[in-house]
Design goal:
The chain has about 300 residues and is mainly alpha-helical. Helix content is about 75%, strand content about 0%. Helix 3 packs antiparallel against helix 4 and helix 10 runs antiparallel to helix 11. The longest helix has 29 residues.
Length: about 300
C-alpha cells in the first residue's frame, strides 16, 4: 500500500497502532452477544457492514479519495470482502450463539498462528523466526490462563460451532496475506472497497432470509449494532490495514492476543470486577508474546 513501507522490525508507532486495534476490537464479542439477542446473525452482519461502509465512505469523500476502477483491484477487494469480512463475520456471529466468548477467544487465537505460517509461505519478506514462534506460544498461553481451564473443558461440546469459529480464524489469517498484495491502494480505500464487496453479498442475503423489516430489535441491540459498525468495522479495518502495510501480516495478527485483557479492563471499568492473579499472569504472558518478535527478530 502506498501509505507506508514494511519495516525490518516493528517500531513504537506500529505497537501503538496495534494497541489501538486491540482496544477497538476488544469489545466486539460483547457487542455481538448484545446484538444477536434480538437481531438474527445475518442481519447483524449486514448491518455492521452497511454502517461501516457508510462511515468509511464519508471519510473517503472528505479526504477526496477515489475508489479504484481497474478490474484487478476490485477482484482482490471482492476476495477480501468475502474472505475477510462476510465469511468471518457470519461464522463468528453464528458461532457465538452456541459457544461462550471465552472459548471463542481461545479458538480465535489461531489467527496469528495461521497468518505467520501463511506469510512464511507466500511472503518472501515475512519468514518464520524464533521470536515469532515464541510470541505465538506465549500469547496463546496467556489466553488459556486468562479464560481458565473451565473454558477448555467444553471443547468437545458444540463441535460444529467450534469448527465454524476456527474457520473464521483461518479466513482472517488468509485475508492479511491478500491485503499485502493490493499495491498502491490506501488503507481507507481498501477498507471501504472490501465492505462494499461484502455488502453486495450480505445485504441481499439478509433481506431474503431474515426479512429485517419484520424484526423487533431492542434498543440495546441496535446500539450494539451501531457500535459494531462504527468502531469494530470502520475504525478497526482502517487500523488493521495500516498495521499490515507498516509491519506485516504476522505482526498485525498479534492484535488477537489483546482482546482478552481488553475484556478484563471493560469488566473492571463498567462492572466493578476485580481481576484475579490468573488475569495478571495472562496479561504478562500476552505482553511478552507481543514483545518477542521485536526482542528476537531473527533474520527474514
Amino acid at each position: 500500500m502506498a501509505t507506508a513501507s514494511l519495516h525490518a522490525r516493528p517500531d513504537r508507532g506500529d505497537y501503538l497502532l496495534l494497541m489501538l486495534l486491540g482496544l477497538t476490537w476488544g469489545g466486539s464479542f460483547l457487542l455481538i452477544k448484545l446484538a444477536v439477542a434480538t437481531i438474527p446473525p445475518l442481519t447483524v452482519v449486514a448491518g455492521r457492514i452497511v454502517i461501516g461502509a457508510a462511515v468509511l465512505g464519508l471519510l473517503a469523500w472528505w479526504r477526496g479519495a477515489k475508489l479504484p476502477r481497474d478490474r484487478a483491484s476490485w477482484s482482490k477487494l471482492f476476495v477480501m470482502g468475502t474472505l475477510g469480512t462476510m465469511l468471518p463475520f457470519a461464522l463468528i456471529t453464528w458461532g457465538e450463539t452456541r459457544i461462550d466468548s471465552g472459548l471463542a477467544a481461545i479458538l480465535m487465537s489461531f489467527v496469528p498462528i495461521g497468518a505467520i505460517v501463511l506469510a512464511h509461505v507466500f511472503q518472501h519478506d515475512e519468514r518464520l523466526t524464533g521470536g515469532k514462534i515464541v510470541g505465538v506460544m506465549l500469547g496463546a498461553a496467556g489466553i488459556v490462563v486468562l479464560v481458565g481451564p473451565s473454558a477448555l473443558a467444553g471443547l468437545g461440546d458444540e463441535l460444529v460451532a467450534q469448527l465454524v469459529v476456527l474457520a473464521a480464524a483461518l479466513c482472517y489469517s488468509g485475508n492479511t496475506i491478500v491485503a499485502r498484495r493490493l499495491g498502491s491502494l490506501s488503507p481507507d480505500i481498501v477498507s471501504i472497497g472490501m465492505l462494499l464487496a461484502a455488502g453486495a453479498i450480505a445485504v441481499p442475503a439478509a433481506v431474503v432470509i431474515d426479512r429485517p423489516w419484520q424484526l423487533e430489535p431492542s434498543s440495546l441491540s441496535l446500539v450494539a449494532l451501531l457500535l459494531l459498525g462504527v468502531l469494530s468495522t470502520a475504525l478497526g479495518y482502517v487500523l488493521l490495514f495500516a498495521v499490515v502495510a507498516r509491519a506485516g501480516a504476522g505482526f498485525a495478527a498479534f492484535n488477537n492476543f489483546l482482546v482478552p485483557p481488553v475484556g478484563v479492563a471493560w469488566g473492571v471499568a463498567l462492572l466493578g470486577e476485580q481481576p484475579g492473579p490468573n488475569a495478571l499472569i495472562a496479561l504478562a504472558l500476552i505482553l511478552a508474546g507481543l514483545a518477542a518478535p521485536r526482542l528476537w527478530p531473527g533474520r527474514s
